[in-house]
Structures are given as C-alpha cells and as structure tokens.
Amino acid sequence: MKKINKPLSTILVSLLVGISAFALSACNGGDDEFQIGIIQLMEHPALDAATEGFMAQLYDEGISASFDVQNGQRDVPTLDTIASRFVGNEVDLVLANGTLSAQSIANATNTIPIVGVSITTFVGAGVVDSNEAPGRNVTGASDMNPIEAQIEMMLEFLPNIETIGLLYSSNEANSVYQAQLAREVIEGLGLSSESATITSAADLQQVATSLAGNVDAIYVPTDNAIAGAMGVMANISIETGTPVFAGEENMTMGGGVATLSVNYYELGRQAGRMAAQILRGEGDPATMPIQFAEEYNYTVNGFIVEALEIDVPARFQDYIFMPE
Questions:
Q1: Does this chain's domain 2-144+263-296 share its CATH topology with 147-247?
Q2: What integer pLDDT is reported at residue 28 of this predicted model?
Q3: What topology does CATH give the domain 2-144+263-296?
Q4: DSSP string of 192-250?
Q5: Are strands 258-262 and 296-301 parallel, antiparallel or unpaired?
C-alpha cells in the first residue's frame, strides 16, 4: 500500500511554502500591484489546497498581487469581521473559500469582485442568482461532488447493502443540498436511506453512533463540521462495523473507506483563472458562469478497509493509501 502523496500529505507544507513565496514577491510590488483578500472558512487540507492553487495560478498568470490571508475558524462573527476589514481596506478582489465565507463577504459588499471556491451550491448559499448568470459581484468554482458516482462506488465495495445512512449538518446549506441529491440517487437505485443531522461537532458521537446501529453503511457529504471530526467517525465505524464513505479525500483518509473526490488544488487553480480574467478587465463576475470541478481523485483508506475486512475491488487497488 502507498503512503499518502500530494495532494494529501504535502498540501500543508506546500501551502506554507507558497504563502512565503507570494509574500516575498509582494514586497517588490508597486502601485500596479493588486490587493487580494482571502477569507478561508477554517483550517482544513482541502480548503488549504484550494487557497494554494488559487495563489499559484495567479502567480503563473503573471498577476502582481499581495495577499491578505485570513482564517475564520468556522465562526460567523469572525468571518464578518474579516469581510468588513477587506471592505474597509478596499481590496481589489476577494477569494471566498467556503460557503460561510462567501456569505459573509457577499453581505459586506456588492461592488468588490468576489471569486468563491469550495462552495457546493452558490445558488443555495444565496450569493448568486443562477449558475449561468450570477447577476451580482460573485462568481467562482463549485466543489459539487460526483454524488451518483460516489454512491455507485459504495455498491462496488459493498454490493449487499440495503440501507444507507446520510449524516450531515442541518445548518450547512451545502450539506443539506448534497444529502438531498444523495437521497434521490439511493432511492433511484432501489435502496433505502435514513437521515441523521447534527448542528455542531459536539453532536456527532451520539448521532452517528445511533445512525450506525440502523444502517448498513453511512455516506457523509463534504460537511465542514464533520470534516474536522473524522477521527470520531473512524472510531464509530470500527466499533460498530459500519463502513463510512465520505465526499472528500481528506475526510476519507481521516476515517472513511473510499471516495471519488474533487481535486481541491486544481479547483483553486480554476478559481485563480477566473480571478485573473477579472483583474485584467476581461470578465465581470455578474456574467461569468459558475464553473464546476474538472479533476477528481479516487482515494481508498488502507487502514479502514483492513480494520473492517473489506475486499477492495480490483479497479481501486492502485488508489489504496495508508494514513501517516
């Protein structure tokens, strides 16, 4: 089995290196240097990778810029404070990394261009009028999962399952949206589903344990509250023998079986290309359609499949990684 490789194990290191490089280049800027605010929802490898990809793309595009990178720690008042700061500083563009980040900055300004990333549904978040014609100062790149392919993958690993549990945060629009789509896919395949929701990570142990006792496997979409607590899910999965499949590769390596996941570094690059167009005066967020991920990765958690004694289908053997 393989150890985790980029974009998993080296994301945080390369992010720090990337930030340092950009900070140094910014010191040499002049009056024509763009000021870019980056408001990231919280620290997480997937979000970190998107931020890294965004900055790397702007560098590759030859955009001279300095970056004010701020982390909201998934706290709405903190995100609102950061948004107000960016507006007060009259930055030239904002990267909103995460749904709550986009909502905070979109509420704070209707003039500064905003490029969103790591957002499942821009429409559901209320920051654009439609994917085809945003109609506002917001556009970006969605991390909408290939949910149908993910559910079908679950059946390749576990062909005899009949009931799939859906576990997600009821107060995250992106999670609610994904859960509804997953429910439709599951029912379309002739299977049953059972939903369980949390309002914070503090609810996870009790809610997930109860759900595990009633289903054959659990599907968790890209959910910010659960993403930071996948260790809890790993323990519950092993203790109950209930396999967990997550919507994102870093969540999977934290406690899931397998996934087909958006490549967040490349998604950040997509957002960076959109931002470069805006900064060069070649595009207006109001008329730039929302883009969707172009690259996906398979990931299988070697530790979990061994612990649960799950036979990995032949076509996924090359994607088995062992957590470090």
A1: yes
A2: 38
A3: Rossmann fold (3.40.50)
A4: EEEEEEESSGGGHHHHHHHHHTT-SEEEE-S-HHHHTTHHHHHHHHHHHT--EEESSHH
A5: antiparallel
pLDDT digits (tens, 9 = 90+) for 237-266: 999 999 999 999 999 999 999 999 999 999
Classify residue 172 by its DSSP letter.
Answer: -
Is 39 strand, coil or helix? strand
The superfamily (CATH) of domain 147-247 is Response regulator (3.40.50.2300)
Task: Provide the residue ranges of all domains of the chain, joining segments of one domain with +.
Answer: 2-144+263-296, 147-247
pTM for the model stands at 0.82
Positive or negative: CA dihedral 310, 313, 316, 317: positive
Mean pLDDT of 71-97: 96
- In the 8-state DSSP scheme, what is residue 35? E
Take residue 220 and report the two structure tokens written for it. Answer: 């968790």
**Burial grade of 164 (CB within 10 A; 0-12, 13-18, 19 or more):** buried
Q: Are 61 and 273 in contact (CB under 8 A)?
A: yes
Averaged pLDDT for residues 297-303: 96
Q: Are strands 163-169 and 217-220 parallel, antiparallel or unpaired?
A: parallel
Mean pLDDT of the chain: 91
Task: Flag whether pLDDT at 5 surpasses 90.
Answer: no
- 31 pLDDT band, cuts 50/70/90, is low
What residues contact residue 270 under an 8 Å CB cut-off, 6+ apart? 57, 117, 141, 291, 293, 294
